[in-house]
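Quick sanity check, PAS domain-containing protein:
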Amino acid sequence: MRLSKHFIRSLFTSTAWWLGVATSFLLFFLVSQVVEAKLQAQFEHQVSLAKTAIETRVASYVDVLRGAAALFSTSDNITREQFRSYVRQLELERTFPGITNLNFTRRVYATDKAAFEAAVQHDTSTHPLGYPGFSIRPAGDRQEYHVVTYIEPMETNMVSFGFDVAAAESGHNAVDIGRDSGKLMSSGRLLHISGPFKHVGLSMRLPLYHRGMPLDTVEDRRAAYFGTVGAGFDINKLMEGAINRTHVPHLGFRIFDAGRKDGKLASGTTDPSLLLYDSNDGKTPTGDKPALHQRVPIEVGPRVWEADFQIDKSLIDEGFEVYIPGIVLVLGLLASALLFSINYSQNSARRRAIELAREMTKDLRASQANLAEAQQMASLGSWTLDGASKAMNWSAETFHILGMERFSDAPDFNDFLRRLHDDDRSRVLQGLERCLQNREAFNAEHRIRRRDGPVRWVQTIARPGPADGPSMMRGTIMDITERKQTVEALKRSQELLRELTAHQDRVKEEERRRIAREIHDELGQTLLALRIDVSMLEARTAKGHPRLNQKVRGALNQIDATVKTIRTIINNLRPAVLDLGLTAAIEWQVAEFRRRSGITCDLEMSDEEFDVDDARATTLFRILQESLTNVIRHAKASHVLIELEQHDKQLVMKIRDNGIGIAPGPRKGTNSFGLVGVEERIHALNGRFIIDSAPGCGTTLSIFIPLEPQRERRSEPEQIAG
């Protein structure tokens, strides 16, 4: 009890307590202002969304009017039937319910008035009786008339049919302004429609000009002008659904017509006669409750509307933010009391600090143990280097990777350098010095020699320390010996697979040669003997047995076709021309390519025979075959150039086409096995090839084959084959 009285007495006499109270009330005031500003910003955001929605809706309706104007730009003589068909396809009542009608007004001079009225009266394109009662209204003589000639839907807008929109001064001015400017124009007044379809209406028009006439100056536009296309808008239907109430559920607004942009605007007006739309049907949306209010202008063609937005604060204050100022005040007072009560816990503060330090030490040791275990599992050590003293700090795994015991003293840079392989020491040392001096990152794979003797592969990564700190470097060292061994094994496997593939190709070529010779020697001789016999039979039956002779001639033709087929099969297996040398084989293949594809093909090579072994001749011939096949299938070329020459103990063959080229990217896809096969054939002969191509620029394939085979590379396939 004594302690409680002392606590309360000290509390109310403490300067820190009263400062805390004052700070709490100050924070309460500041947070209240922030919340109020957030509510205002939220309201302004809702207003911005609503304004954008209204502008988008109005713009979409104006685009309908522009579409109608585009219809008249296609022809100077759009008929009534074409206009009606166009409007019906728009389905205004469903897609644009705010448009009450689309109409076309034609400029009629006084001299043409009678002829114009007669033409409309006898127009039976949409009504079988025409319009016998048609006349320009209001009656009277004027220099020119701007008559509503087409209007759809006609059934609900007959009252406007034949009306002169420029009869009144305001309409005449609007027509003149639109004609001279070429821009959207308005009737200049609101139309308060009464009756069963009571609404506030607005009429807008776009001038129409004859096609092909210049429109650069006012005089040009006046000369080219022949009428307008207009639309009547029902403002209530135009605004219905314009705003997505999901985003602004409680926002109320009214829209007033402030006037023309080029005239004096009635900004801030609340005149009921200028009211276009009221989302609350005349009711005050907020009543006497606190409300947020904003008025924004909206440009609609030549006119300016003003949207007056209002919302009840209680409807927008739906979040937790309303309670934040009170919570801040309560928490501030509680915090002041708690801070004061800390004075009573000073005696236990030291004990708590010691316990906390012990807990942190325990956690730190656990973290170090976890790090050491993780480094051991990943064979990844870490180290630091002091650039000035060259002293280093190694993790336990770094000692293990280098095959060293942990020293009682910190190791230095020389201990690290002694473990580097002699062939890699200079390269690693230069990289680490650049990292330390030039602040360049270092990343290299190299060898080390452990203290116990074995050579291991490691990856060393180093990064410079902070630029504003002492000269130092941090790094890691990872044992990658197993990965290196795996990579080397994979390379050896790939090399062996390539040798096996080359051996398979050689065996395949030998088998093709054997099959081709057997077909030629056995089947060819048999067919030849059969043809001789059938030829003799054909000669003997020519006179005495005409019907039999006809059958014999058919058999003889069939034998000839079979011989040709056999010859084609032999050439496909192994052209006999290969036995005549590489030059003859290539000339034969080029001739076959011209005959089969119809593509022009030029061959440039020496007249002398190339001194190459059969394997190289066959490989070059097969590469040429595959390349020309690719040209036929993919290149879409009209010309091919083949060059074959000898340079510095190697054969160089270049195949150029003027086709569509090859897009950049990986070539070893599912549709490029031809190039892969070419590449493997070339590698089997220790050659190389280059593809120079780009989309639309053709393709050049350059092949370089050494004339002297490397015996050490050929010996491995022979051993494998044995």
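Posting the structure with no commentary besides this: Residues 483-574 form one domain.
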